[in-house]
Amino acid sequence: MFLANSISSVFILMLLLYAVSMFVFLRFNRGLAPTSRRQQARRYLIGSLLSGMALSLTGLSVWSPQVVAALVVCLAWMLTWNITTDLSFRRSSPDYDNHIDIAFALYLFGFLVGLYATLAQLSAVAAAVVCGIIESVLLLVPVAEVGYYLIYKTRIDTTGVQPILETDSNEIIEFIHSFSPLKLVSMAVPLLAAVAFCFVLNFAAPEVREMGDSGPGPHCLPALVGIVYLASGFILLGLTVFFAIYLFKPHHGLFVRTGIVELFLDVRAYQKGNAGYRQAVAERLKTLQVETPGTRLATPHTIVLVIGESACRDYMSCYAPQPFENTPWESDMARHDSRFVFLSNAYSCAMQTVPSLSRVLTEMNLYNDLTFDKACSIVDIAHKAGYRVSWYSNQGHIGSNDTPVSLIAETADVAKWTKQEVGKVDYDESLIDFLDEVNPEVNNLVILHLMGSHFNYQNRYTPEYAAANGLKDGDNVRNYRNSLHYTDHFLHRVYDYAREKLHLAVMVYFSDHGAIPEKRRLPWFLGFGMVRIPMWIYLSDEYRKTCPAASKALEENKEKDFTNDLTYDLLCGLLNIKSGHYDPSQSLASPTYRFTRDMLLTDEGRVRLADEEKWKAEGR
User: Fold this and answer.
1) Which of 96, 114, 180, 513 has the fewest Cβ atoms nearer than 10 Å?
2) How many CB atoms lie within 10 A of CB 462?
């Protein structure tokens, strides 16, 4: 059975699959770093070789109906999500990377042919039924994706998935009745054809390569090579089990990380979290007390909070000398405008966005025992203090990596994401267009969440901006500095707009965490460059006159050490409030700020700021 397949035909097929994999990856993904290209080239080569090994052990011809069925399912998964993503977002997004769908398809092919051949040794009918069912279900997914794209002219996203997950049986029936019989038939035919295709091919007689006088079928085991065939059978079984585990293990398998499955899982997790979080917010707001004792800023005014991404002050000329001036506006403000307070020793509490911002935006921090669902957010406080809150983001909306941030954002009066806005190009400057929606006649808290200097760095700024400002592309460090130049330009534009049109009183900028562009990013602490962040606060002349205590405290504390999980308290202090959910001793805008370097933590509490010099001495 097993070794009867032609090695040359299998080799050609695997070579073609590998070539198609690399073509799809390079053609239908954007913003790819050289390291990503090399990594996926290795991944796809290994997947092609392992699947080819499985096919060579089955004895099935590469033209066998069962192999063709598996190959079609494989190609459908490889192509559909990548192509529909590219067609939908090429004009608006500078980068997207769907390499897992390609890897899933390669390993899926090896699994399907291995599963059929293994089951066929027990029962050809059982093999056809099982593989027909599995392949039908798998093939229906990309067929439905293509149908969705043809109807709505865009790839399915959260707005398409949410109604599906929220729909009950009666709504499904009503939805079906809303279509004419002709449309229902036109939608049903491709789905039925996909199912029929899989079953017809799996029930067809398998084509098996002949091997001299060994017999035509997979059940022929010549005595002289029986041991070899038996060994190859065990190898095929082992490969098939490996494929099954690698593909379908619950949390880290390739299947749950494919585009369409990850989208559904993320939306479902978001819906569950959203329901619980909104209920907690509603309960909290019933008892939340916020007072504004003493003088208050005149209405209307606006406070702007800009959350950067992966910015490290070590690479910013407003903080440290650089090979070229890459923060011209911020450097000018730091030197010549006393209304700006640049913090000298700000650090992030974590190395990643979610663990950082879930603390930054709430009273939960590394120095108390609060949990996310119990912690009051800055949006809650602002609402109670009489502010209209607007949240505009250039990062993802719903996903396993940003759900806590999105949950907070959704409690704002207005929450919008560029990736959900038709015509919004995914560069940070596109967020400025949203500012036209802010009502200048009320008190506003405007939160802008940037892509900033998120890897891949050269995708964070437009080629036109680079050319206009003499920014040359280079290695990661050069491109990283260029991205910080673009962020500086963005901050300047936001500042000018808010001053001219929104009665700007306070503007705060900081990064969620830092980065070390010389090093490949890994999920463990590589050094303090990952947490040394920029942070500055602008206080208008009116604010300084109206809130002199907070202004003076901030000036006096600007050299003190600070971790950004205390930003919630800083903002409460700048809002000049009094509340049981605000601790002035944790606010730089309070004369009672109590933290010293030996008390502060980073890397989610695993590293002390006091150990920074030791890390430097060790060259890290």
Assistant:
1) 180
2) 14
Which phi and psi angles does 128 have, rounded to 5°? -65, -40
The tens digit of pLDDT for each residue in 522-573 reads: 678 889 999 999 999 999 999 999 999 999 999 999 999 999 999 999 999 9
Buried b (16+ CB within 10 A) or exposed e, 36-66: beeebeebbeebbebbbbbbbbbbbbbebbb
Determine how many CB atoms are found less than 10 A away from the CB of residue 167.
12
Report the pLDDT value the prediction gives residue 448, as an integer from 0 to 100: 98
Three-state secondary structure call for residue 561 = strand
542 with 505: CB under 8 angstroms?
yes
pLDDT at position 217 over 60: no
Among 16-20, 54-58, 129-133, the minimum mean pLDDT is found in: 54-58
Place of tokens 């033209």: 63
C-alpha distances out from residue 610 to 346, 467, 562, 593, 607, Å: 13, 42, 12, 18, 9
- Number of residues written out for the chain: 620
DSSP string, 422-488: TT--SSGGGGGGGGGGS-TTS-EEEEEE--TTPSSGGGSS-HHHHHHTT----SHHHHHHHHHHHHH
Looking at the predicted structure, is the pLDDT value of residue 400 above 60?
no
Phi-psi region of 294 (alpha: psi -120 to 50; beta: other; left: phi over 0): left
Instruction: Please write the tens of the pLDDT for every residue from 228-274.
Output: 567 788 899 999 999 999 999 998 899 999 999 999 998 888 888 77
DSSP secondary structure of 78-113: HHHHHHHHHHHHTTT-S-B--HHHHHHHHHHHHHHH
Q: Which residue reads 């700000």 in tokens?
A: 346
Report d(CA 195, CA 347) in Å as an integer.
56
Other Cβ atoms closer than 10 A to 488? 23
2 has a pLDDT exceeding 60: no
Residue with tokens 């966005």: 353
Position of tokens 């001053």?
Answer: 499
Query: Distance (Å, rounded) from C-alpha 6 to C-alpha 59?
Result: 8
Using CA atoms, how far apart are residues 53 and 13, in angstroms rounded to an integer?
11
Residues 587, 566: Cα–Cα separation, whole Å: 7
244 phi/psi in degrees, rounded to 5: -60, -45
| Residue 262 CB partners (closer than 8 Å, separation 6+) | 256, 399, 400
Tell me 188's DSSP state.
Answer: H
Q: How far apart are alpha carbons 506 and 571 in whole angstroms? A: 10
Burial of residue 524, with CB atoms counted within 10 A of its CB: 0-12 exposed, 13-18 middle, 19 or more buried: exposed
Residues 423, 7: Cα–Cα separation, whole Å: 51
Of 109 and 424, the structure prediction assigns the larger pLDDT to: 109
Take residue 236 and report the two structure tokens written for it. 């095929």
How far apart are the C-alpha atoms of 29 and 620, rounded to whole Å?
34
